[in-house]
Amino acid sequence: MSHSARIRRRRQKGGGAAKWFLLAFLVLLLIGVSAGLAAAGWVVRTANDGPALSTYTPRNAGALTEVLASDGTRLGFIQNDDLVQPMATSALPKVMKQATVAIEDERFYKHTGVDYEGIIRAAVKNATTDGKQGGSTLTMQLVRNLYTQDVTRSGIEGYKRKIREARLAQQLEEEHSKEWVLGKYLNTVPYGTYGGQSAIGVGAAARLYFNKSARDLTLREAAMLAGMPQAPSQYSPVDNPEGTKARRNEVLGKMAELGYITREKARAEMKKGLGLNMERYFQRARERYVLDYVKSELIKEYGADATKRGGFRVYTTINLKYQQYARAAMSQLNGVGPSSAIVTIDPKNGDIVTMASTQQYGRSKGKSTFNLAAQGHRQPGSSFKTMALLTAFREGVSPSTTYTSISPMKIAKPPCGSPTSPWELKTYGGKGAGSMDLRRATLASDNSVYAQLVSDLGPDKVKETARMMGIKSKLLGVCAESLGGLTDGVSPLEMANAYATIVNGGYRNRPRVIKKIETREGPVKLPARWRVKRTKAFSDGVTNEVVKILAANAAGGTGTKSIIPGCTAQGGKTGTTDKNIDAWFVGFTPKFATAVWVGFPGSAKISMNGMYFGSNIDGGTYPAQIWGDYMKKVVAKGCGKWKEPTEPFNSQPFQGKFAREGAKDEDSGEGDQQQGTQPGPGTTTPPSNDTSPDNGGGNDNGGNGNDDTGFDPGAYETQPQGPPGNGGTQAPGDG
């Protein structure tokens, strides 16, 4: 073979290899292009297959509900797992916006929802280093937080999530401005968890970690918060302060790199500590019993979720000064043993202006979350006789109607007893006091007279009156209820409202503790349950007769320790239960009705005998004193004047058995007794002594400084006999 032939053969062989190489390259190129086109097609299909932004409902992060006193002072927040306090974008400080953009999305103001340059940069970094950097923009993160809540991170589904987020982010930025996006992000991103509660949004985070409004954040504080959303648990300033500081300094360095601050400023701030000031802003509260009561009221109307997350500003009727006055008055029980509770209602509208007790709020030993003022149901004793008295006047019975006080007494006929099951009772002193009219019987709080009165009226009528006054606790319509023997007792709140009906000219109010509600959008229409509701239950001529007798009782009966110096318009009634377990004073001035209870919380029935300077605690001792000490401050600017009735009180001869015939042998344990009499219209039988006895300072707890014929009101302040049921419910005992 010639030389030239050999050269041609070599060229043919080489050319063949080159062709095969070129062919292989072209095939690979086609495969790559095809794969790229397929991948691009898959990306487009994935993006288009996802729902449009308009199909999503933005997640409502909500906001904590804030409860305020009547003067606007914060009582506290209704607690929730998420701490949320949204802020207007315009109120967010510039430094917080800059810090967040610097560390999370430095090209935020340049892209349109998706930062392709950032995605490539993140991919390169992740491929060449051990670090992991995401390519999500602030807008994409907002889409995830606010709309999709999809947190899938790995596999094909993770890529699909990213693609769909990118598409939705572009749609979001087509509809909203950059400031809107940034503001929404800062209000919805989580900033860590503390004490089981997560701070959602920079408003809550600023309060949680620095005890300040977000608008007052400093550079180092804003930098710390901006660095937390990437990994809230890892960058917790409580659990990992060193890691949090390093992350904060990273934010400061990035802000300097982007020109938001100078490098000198960044270095100076990096040397500082975190500066935490965690004062538990959201957990701090005053008047926690009131706060719980308001929460229960809100839940009744809105449900638990809306109450916790509704972002309401709730203005209550509670007067903080009156709360202080109440505690100061109840402090006289310090070291004595019993607890006390006070409720005051404004008779003109039903506003609960005071709801206080001596208990300490809490769940540890010696504390309680049980609200004695609103939840505590105790036997009311003789303070419930007012319901029988009002029933008598409602039926047209004259205050001058007389009965014979007998003790011990046994009623063996219906409706109060039977021959086989008589109603047995006695007066506090154990002796009868002879003939007395309803006025004197009330001042003496005489059980015998009131037992005869309810027997004549019918216990069902007294139950009806109690309901008309506003009592909602269980009533059976039995005679013992007129002397305070209720199945489950009654609360101070109910008693205050019932007595408000008397001083309010017969108008029953619906008690309310909420007077106004607002949200960020403005006032909320007040639901019907908290609007003022006044119902005419009695004529003011009828209630005026009760007012006059209870005013006399405060001035010269069992309630003299309630006297407010300089006040000529006050009235009230004492109440004491068997063995002095519960003691009450419930009374009113023209402006306020107040109930005071004294006793031992818990199911155990603890006697208060010997606890009033060696004497027994009854309604005329500490309860009346507390009432007077408290109310004299409440009405310091004037207790007001009684309103003249506009409707007449018409009475007629009473045809009740005991009022007509008096008690006979089968009705008493004393043999023949003087018959009761019914004076004619307009006549009266005044008591022999219409003032408190001179027994050393007006003591009305049972002492008698007069002779046997004198009037000793304390001797007849007595317990109900044989109350049905369990004697009342109360908070569970400690432990």
From TrEMBL:
<keyword id="KW-0328">Glycosyltransferase</keyword>
<dbReference type="InterPro" id="IPR012338">
    <property type="entry name" value="Beta-lactam/transpept-like"/>
</dbReference>
<feature type="region of interest" description="Disordered">
    <location>
        <begin position="646"/>
        <end position="735"/>
    </location>
</feature>
<feature type="domain" description="Glycosyl transferase family 51">
    <location>
        <begin position="82"/>
        <end position="255"/>
    </location>
</feature>
<dbReference type="GO" id="GO:0009252">
    <property type="term" value="P:peptidoglycan biosynthetic process"/>
</dbReference>
<protein>
    <submittedName>
        <fullName>Penicillin-binding protein 1A</fullName>
    </submittedName>
</protein>
<feature type="domain" description="Penicillin-binding protein transpeptidase">
    <location>
        <begin position="341"/>
        <end position="598"/>
    </location>
</feature>
<dbReference type="Pfam" id="PF00905">
    <property type="entry name" value="Transpeptidase"/>
</dbReference>
<dbReference type="InterPro" id="IPR001264">
    <property type="entry name" value="Glyco_trans_51"/>
</dbReference>
<dbReference type="InterPro" id="IPR050396">
    <property type="entry name" value="Glycosyltr_51/Transpeptidase"/>
</dbReference>
<dbReference type="Pfam" id="PF00912">
    <property type="entry name" value="Transgly"/>
</dbReference>
<keyword id="KW-0645">Protease</keyword>
<dbReference type="InterPro" id="IPR036950">
    <property type="entry name" value="PBP_transglycosylase"/>
</dbReference>
<dbReference type="GO" id="GO:0030288">
    <property type="term" value="C:outer membrane-bounded periplasmic space"/>
</dbReference>
<dbReference type="GO" id="GO:0008658">
    <property type="term" value="F:penicillin binding"/>
</dbReference>
<feature type="compositionally biased region" description="Gly residues">
    <location>
        <begin position="695"/>
        <end position="705"/>
    </location>
</feature>
<keyword id="KW-0511">Multifunctional enzyme</keyword>
<keyword id="KW-0808">Transferase</keyword>
<dbReference type="GO" id="GO:0009002">
    <property type="term" value="F:serine-type D-Ala-D-Ala carboxypeptidase activity"/>
</dbReference>
<keyword id="KW-0378">Hydrolase</keyword>
<dbReference type="InterPro" id="IPR023346">
    <property type="entry name" value="Lysozyme-like_dom_sf"/>
</dbReference>
<keyword id="KW-0121">Carboxypeptidase</keyword>
<feature type="compositionally biased region" description="Low complexity">
    <location>
        <begin position="671"/>
        <end position="694"/>
    </location>
</feature>
<dbReference type="GO" id="GO:0008955">
    <property type="term" value="F:peptidoglycan glycosyltransferase activity"/>
</dbReference>
<feature type="compositionally biased region" description="Gly residues">
    <location>
        <begin position="724"/>
        <end position="735"/>
    </location>
</feature>
<dbReference type="GO" id="GO:0006508">
    <property type="term" value="P:proteolysis"/>
</dbReference>
<dbReference type="InterPro" id="IPR001460">
    <property type="entry name" value="PCN-bd_Tpept"/>
</dbReference>
